[in-house]
Design brief:
The chain is an alpha+beta fold. It has 2 domains: 3-17 and 167-304, Nucleoside Triphosphate Pyrophosphohydrolase (Alpha-Beta Complex); 18-163, Nucleoside Triphosphate Pyrophosphohydrolase. Helix content is 21%, strand content 27%. It has helices spanning 3-7, 38-42, 107-110, 116-133, 208-220, 270-278, 295-304, and strands at 45-49, 55-56, 65-67, 80-85, 88-94, 104-105, 145-148, 153-156, 162-163, 168-176, 181-186, 198-201, 224-235, 240-249, 264-269.
Amino acid sequence: MTCETFAGSGFQLDSPPLLSRSTVDRREELRESLDGGAKLWRSGRVLLVDAKGRGQIDDDSRLVMQPAVDFGDRPSPNAVLLGVEDDVSYWALRTEHDGAQEGWRDLRSGGALLNDTDAGLLTTAVGLLGWHDNARYCAVCGAATTRVRVGWARRCSGCEREEYPRTDPAVICLVNDGADHVLLARQPVWPKHRFSVLAGFVEVGESLEACVAREVEEEVGVQCTGIRYLGSQPWPFPRSLMLGFAATADRDAPLVPADGEIEEARWVHRDTILAALEAGGEPVDGLRLPPSVSIAHRMIKGWATTQP
């Protein structure tokens, strides 16, 4: 299903979010091999990821991977299976290498350079390895857990409870006035001039649409209507799934930025957005847009290039 199918009437995402791209087969039955993935391992390639979520990218903007058999005849107990494509299995391992030198990049700086296959592999590896780093003990009894299902679950050594990778849903909404202005805001911790659309985490017992309305009102003090879904993107920092929405609001309503959370909020004309897109990351009228690797960029560009 394409992003265009999701979007419905009005503007759409200008293209699929870059970290939503993936081509490998990740069916669950691939994780249930009786030999612990040994057959898959022999044909496999291993992606090394450091503690800061960086992988090595070569001069051709491809992920650098090594033959799995270089790490042993059977799957490393710390390896996670990312998927299979054209009879080649792809795995990820955490490396103690600090990844600080040239060629090692994280998803924010390198995700937009990668092709569909590599973008999906690195995104999955970062999220899955990060979960393992923080799920070493059972949430019920506190005993140590071990990796099972080629890295897609952990089993408690005490109560034998299985735990699975967590994903935290978060909404991100482009609010516009139904004409030529979009509502953007900036957080105090962001780089100078950086503005983006509004976002927040979904709470227990809350629908996605209710979350959109609540977050917009909490962050900038306006009520929105016409909430509709656009598309989604994994955002493994550390384990979010960004669910993109569009909505409209009254441009004459006073903006009340949330104290300590929103430093500034303002309505921005379409022409300024288009100029900022052309500027390639340089500020225009004190405005710098989110990087192209984010779903926020795809939402803003989709809105700006579609006439109301």
